[in-house]
Specification:
Length: 367
């Protein structure tokens, strides 16, 4: 059981001198198939300042520079806004981050992970702000990426839960799909994420229900946490004036039992962090029972009366199955996107090596 913030907790102002100016931080990106890696980047960025503004690129810009996104821009805007560390979302943010953009939104600096982001012609999208000293870097969350998740869905096997089950066909495809520049392929295929108590503490607030708050319990797989989940939890959150929403997450084996195929795509630890990052969730139960029992309700100090079940229509018919269908339908396009990204990163790294070696060659000529 993990206690989470109500949304305000992640945005609380830091204590300090009354006259101190608030530090405004800028992040931008595609935020396609938002996962706990994206959330962790935004959490780290928010910790560097007092107000976090996140720019999200349009479908057209992403298609131009990277390839087709999985989710539409409207879906991506709402997904980012649902992350509890985000104060403001800027739709249609430019793909290349400029000083003009930072100044327009009164941001002191921008934050990005320690990976490479390039334009269609191979330029570093943060070159201008780096040169101006208005760039900060945060650690990338190892063990997950959009490419990795796409690979898990395309492989249609249970092998992403156990390396022991990996077939030769799976291994061959995993080696070719998610391979990083230089031949490394540490993440695609098998989930390499290692849960730690420190990571849980970073994502959770630990706040208990307060007097006057209405405790609401929901449960499910919450696999590939997506806009359908967000719409549902937002509706649940709106059921009470002061809601305290508890999300129960089923064990991987339980999810596989009732969904079959290769589900869940994300393991229980990954799903836990994804739900903890949502501003509409107050607490998470890890490994919640499939059936809601009286003992479970009593544990959360729920009223002993019955007839407290409420069915909520999220208004969104998106499911994990439909997301997988989107991926499979556009399989070749996503594979081409990954190969295009790899080629650009290799070219960029080669250019950087040449640039670093240039002064040495010039000095050699002086002797």
């Amino acid at each position: 059981m993990i206690r989470n913030g109500h949304g305000e907790a992640g945005n609380a102002k830091r204590p300090g001198p009354r006259a101190r100016r608030a530090v405004r931080v800028w992040c931008d990106g595609c935020y396609d198939m938002v996962h706990y890696g994206h959330s962790n980047q935004l959490r780290q960025a928010r910790a560097m300042g007092d107000h976090l503004i996140v720019g999200v690129h349009t479908d057209e810009e992403i298609a131009k520079h990277k390839g087709p996104p999985v989710f539409t821009q409207e879906e991506r805007y709402k997904m980012v806004q649902a992350i509890k560390w985000v104060d403001e979302v800027v739709p249609a943010a430019p793909y290349v981050t400029t000083l003009e953009t930072l100044d327009k939104y009164n941001c002191d600096f921008c934050v990005h992970g320690n990976d490479i982001t390039l334009t269609v012609d191979g330029r570093d999208t943060y070159e201008e702000v780096k040169q101006a000293g208005r760039y900060r870097e945060c650690k990338r969350t190892q063990g997950v990426s959009t490419t990795d998740l796409v690979g898990r869905m395309l492989l249609v096997t249970k092998a992403h839960h156990s390396s022991q089950e990996m077939s030769s066909e799976y291994r061959e495809y995993a080696d070719s799909f998610g391979k990083c520049p230089g031949g490394r392929n540490p993440w695609t295929g098998v989930s390499q994420f290692l849960q730690t108590s420190q990571k849980i503490i970073q994502f959770a607030s630990g706040k208990e229900p307060q007097p006057g708050e209405t405790v609401i319990y929901v449960a499910g797989a919450f696999d590939l946490f997506h806009i359908g989940h967000v719409d549902f939890l937002e509706k649940v959150y709106g059921l009470a004036e002061r809601p305290y929403v508890i999300a129960g997450l089923h064990f991987d084996q339980e999810v596989n039992h009732y969904k079959g195929k290769n589900y869940p795509i994300m393991n229980l630890h990954e799903r836990t962090l994804s739900v903890l990052a949502c501003r509409y969730v107050s607490e998470v139960v890890i490994g919640a029972p499939y059936s809601v029992t009286a003992e479970l309700l009593d544990h959360f100090k729920e009223p002993k009366r019955r007839g407290i079940f409420c069915q909520v229509d999220s208004g969104n018919d998106l499911t994990t199955d439909l997301i997988v269908q989107r991926i499979i339908k556009n399989r070749l396009e996503y594979e081409a996107r990954n190969q295009k990204k790899e080629a650009k990163e290799l070219a960029f790294q080669e250019a950087m090596r040449r640039q670093e070696a240039q002064p040495e060659r010039e000095s050699d000529c002086d002797f």
